[in-house]
Design a protein that fits this description.
The chain has 19 helices and 15 strands. The protein is α+β, with helices and mostly antiparallel strands. The strands form three sheets. The chain has a seven-stranded mixed sheet with strand order 9-11-10-12-13-14-15. The chain has a six-stranded mixed sheet with strand order 1-7-8-6-5-3, covered by helices on one side. A two-stranded antiparallel ribbon has the order 2-4. Helix 1 runs parallel beside helix 4 and helix 3 packs antiparallel against helix 4. The longest helix has about 35 residues.
Amino acid sequence: MTTGRRSVSSPAMPDYTEGIKKEVAEIKFLIHDLRVEGFLNEILHYHVTLNTDLEIYNIAQAQVLHAADVQELKVKFGVMRKALQDYSNAVKSFSPDRTVLLIGRRYVATIRDVCDLILNPLWGRSDKVLAFLPDEARSVRWRRRYRNCISWLYGVHLRIEAFLEEQEKPGVREEFDIGQDVRDFTRDVVMGYVVEKSEARVELQLDRLDSAVIVGNRPRFRRMYFNLVMNAVDAMSGRKAGVLNVSASIEGERVALRVRDDGVGMSPEKIQQLLSDRPTLDGELHSLGFIFVRQTVAELGGDLSIESTAGKGTTMTLRLPYLPGKTAAELDPSRQDRYRLPPRFRSFPAEDDPVEATSASATIADAAAPTPPSPEEARADGALVTEGMERQRPCGKLIFEAYRKSQAQFPGSIFAIAVTEDDRVEMFTVKPYELDWNISHEDLSPMHFQATFRGRLEEDELKRPTLILKPPQNLRDYFEFKEVPEADRGSERFKRMVRDECIRVARKLIATGLDPQIPVHLASARQFFAAPPEFHGTEPFPLDLLARQGLSTEECSR
């Protein structure tokens, strides 16, 4: 393991901490953090697709109105892209600071203008016109992905507004609870980014989040935290299944915010480079995120450390001073919207949000239904198996059949499964990858996607089918799904139950038709299995190896 630690409590890189250099650095930091172009392209593509669907299904009046909306969006996109090109050219050609600042602000203004248009509830009318389209229409099936992009865009708009306010009132500080803020910001903005950027291959887990009030600029803190998440997602870009873990725990007089990934890791030289001062940012467009992290940690009076092992991952730890015994005051109602995503934009509902109707992509049947569905009701294009149904429909075979039927450019199937302690399949649903729809587990199993085992069967680099298996990610949802009494819940029981169910799932898949030698990538393997070491390597292991592990009850009876 390679470790680097640096106190960043004093200002670094003095050439851009004041005056015009500081203004230029700040606009560069903001533009680097926004990461907006790809998401805006997705939104434009969605509305073009929606307009095409309205034309295909002969919904003429709605198509005419929506076509006008799309044309307005295209015009604003053209202005924004021209401003981006001007900004990039100015930076790379080492234009004078005032020129870079002026053109950078102009580019940010065009992004804000596009956001204002898309987020206006009177524009686009997509929710209303979707009601006229059948479930098989592409725009209907892409709706969740579109909402992820909208959620992200709302976060972009919020950060721009906070930046502009900070320019007018520099040095604004407030007291806020780091645990609650990380939880809210992750659900409202960060989760959607991780899902879309990683194509649902990275598992974002919120671990222990202690309540601790810190003092500082909340929007800058959020941007700093988001930079750490972006770096972690980038580090796992080549993984079949990655895990990103976030925690905030009180340790003595400090609260430690940790962002841990199981990506490629870093060399000692790379760590030193990230922690070292830079003489100038002139001409720089890309390597700005970690400089902003260091600067913000310094402003918060904290220190930063990096622990990394090549091929196994990296942990970024920020230790910040907090106010012991302090409780964060309630936000003024006029400021609350600055920090919370409105419910209509959320892809991942808050605990107090009303529950939406189940997605049309999958139906979860009542496990207590007295009459199980017939075999014909469980198909490989959307198969559902509930309690007792494993005798009629082979789960493993269905997963492989869905993979073979996939019409996507990179074929595969996606599934969710739950197996009880007495070896009954209590929930199972599967779908093939479709030609132009990147389905996620939220689409497949919207009510239970954090409480069940989730998996994908797809090809590896040699075109061989490979299984990707992810354990349940939410302790509370898992215990509620399993109907475990409150008094019996705890982290150790969660680990034991998930470990045993993982083994039962492997055995069930083999017993119902999946090849025992199929390679498996198991996310969070170290969390649930101390051995064998084959589970912890970068190479996949055969499904049979997982199935041959002993259950807790089997080990106790030996």
